[in-house]
Specification:
heterodimer, A: 118 residues, mainly beta, seven-stranded mixed beta sheet, 1 helix, B: 113 residues, five-stranded antiparallel beta sheet, 0% helix
């Protein structure tokens, strides 16, 4: 868990609030990811960044806004969320994007932020 | 639509037995496959990864891949109560170059002492 850290670990917010989730990886990786995990549903990929550039946005609503200021840090800015956005938000990192090399593409997860939207 | 299917369980095995977890996927071009273990309230932890057809062993864990039949399995030998967790299968189609992992819903394993 210490390779990828996330803060806060728990967050309760109202629908009109603005908050940010922070992720930091200490592994020297070049790619970072945001996932959403809801009960009884598969992990859903939200965003992918490689070398601070967004390479994937899986049709995520605009109330979620990612930011990657450098290859070690990733943020997820939240505003006007809905109760159905309550979930575990997981950050992950990998050495690189896919390249046929299991070592470079393996993703390592942070501990997650448990979000509750009231 | 890429899909990864797992039996949600729960799968219960006695301590010391072999636990067999199965996963099928729909995308024929999928190239790499991962098994993650997730304890309740925790984040996924990588257990095994496999790229080539056949078996790959690491300690008590063996991953088996059959691309022709589009399934990947995880065997846990000498199951321990500490193995009780949800096991997530993940598949990487390697089509977009964006390292998109597609996950199953997971199989909940309980090892009974």
């Amino acid at each position: 868990e210490t390779g990828v850290t996330q803060t806060p670990r728990h967050l309760v917010m109202g629908m009109t609030n603005k908050k940010s989730l922070k992720c930091e990886q200490h592994l020297g990786h070049n790619a970072m990811y945001w996932y959403k995990q809801s009960a009884k549903k598969p992990l859903e990929l939200m965003f992918v960044y490689s070398l601070e550039e967004r390479v994937e946005n899986n049709s995520v609503p605009s109330r979620f806004s990612p930011e990657c200021p450098n290859s070690s840090h990733l943020f997820l800015h939240l505003h006007t969320l809905q109760p159905e956005d309550s979930a575990l938000y997981l950050c992950a990192s990998s050495q690189d994007l896919a390249g046929g090399n299991l070592l470079s593409e393996t993703q390592y997860f942070g501990p997650g932020t448990r979000l509750l939207v009231l | 639509q890429k899909e990864v299917e797992q039996n949600s369980g729960p799968l219960s095995v006695p301590e010391g037995a072999i636990a067999s977890l199965n996963c099928t996927y729909s995308d024929r071009v999928s190239q790499s496959f991962f098994w993650y273990r997730q304890y309740s309230g925790k984040s996924p932890e990588l257990i095994m990864s496999i790229y080539s057809n056949g078996d790959k062993e690491d300690g008590r864990f063996t991953a088996q891949l059959n691309k022709a039949s589009q399934y990947v399995s995880l065997l846990i030998r000498d199951s321990q109560p500490s193995d009780s967790a949800t096991y997530l299968c993940a598949v990487n189609p390697l089509q977009t170059g964006a390292n998109n992992l597609f996950f199953g819903t997971g199989t909940r394993l309980t090892v009974i002492p």
